[in-house]
């Protein structure tokens, strides 16, 4: 592009809350044929709310294997889970803690607490070994999620994120947080697909939840990469990028920075973290996925008019 075209493009971008980092970025944006969206905070609001607390185990199925967990009704499940999550900054954890406080449940300080990124938390609460997290977390601690699987699958097919509570080596509860899909996510995906752009979803969340969200916004099930660990997100982008595709990755979080750097074009959306903005080629000032389309239109428009 000529310096003039670059200047016009970056200026129009800035006026529209689309910040291009340098002139060659405009050309790369024009050539994008694939857009990969992060889920949480990008296609969804990223504001979790606790929607379900379910006790499983002896009370639910009449068995008596879990003697120490006998007192765990719904409030007991929520109390232990929220106490374990008390010191976690993860949005899923904040929703559990807020949910407990709203229900007037008093939390206790965990005796020990450890964050397990991409999995959940491990804590000692009132002398009990407590896990709150996904299937992988429980599997890594040899806890069978079987008794809770039906409940979790039902919640996940509603697009919620289900989390398991394990106490002293046995699953005793399921909690679910729900996030809201952004109002304009579907419009953005539709416009990209009309342009002939492939659209993908990459997330650390589980397959069923990811697919439910993908369906809501119009992304095909075969274009969903779920249960991607934070450190593997850039590898996921790379694998989509392999057959010569020019991939734009759109994300908001710290987790996304390496993937943004790996992609042909990295886009940080909304109030995005400093790390994400640093790694990105384009920063969208607003929190609106249709600005991805706007960015592409600006680059196409200015580069075709001024040669
Ligand atoms: P995302 O890509 O959606 O930001 P993460 O990589 O942070 O997700 O986490 C992936 C999954 O690990 C979550 O969907 C959740 O199942 C589980 N998880 C992570 N942190 C926590 C936590 N503090 N409490 C419960 N579950 C968690
Ligand atoms: Mg995110």
TrEMBL record:
Keywords: ATP-binding, Membrane, Metal-binding, Nucleotide-binding, Translocase, Transmembrane, Transmembrane helix. It comes from Halomarina oriensis. GO terms for cellular component: endomembrane system; membrane. Belongs to the cation transport ATPase (P-type) (TC 3.A.3) family. Type IB subfamily. It is found in: Endomembrane system. This is Heavy metal translocating P-type ATPase. The keyword Nucleotide-binding applies. One of its GO terms (biological process) is copper ion homeostasis. GO terms for molecular function: ATP binding; ATP hydrolysis activity; copper ion binding; P-type divalent copper transporter activity.
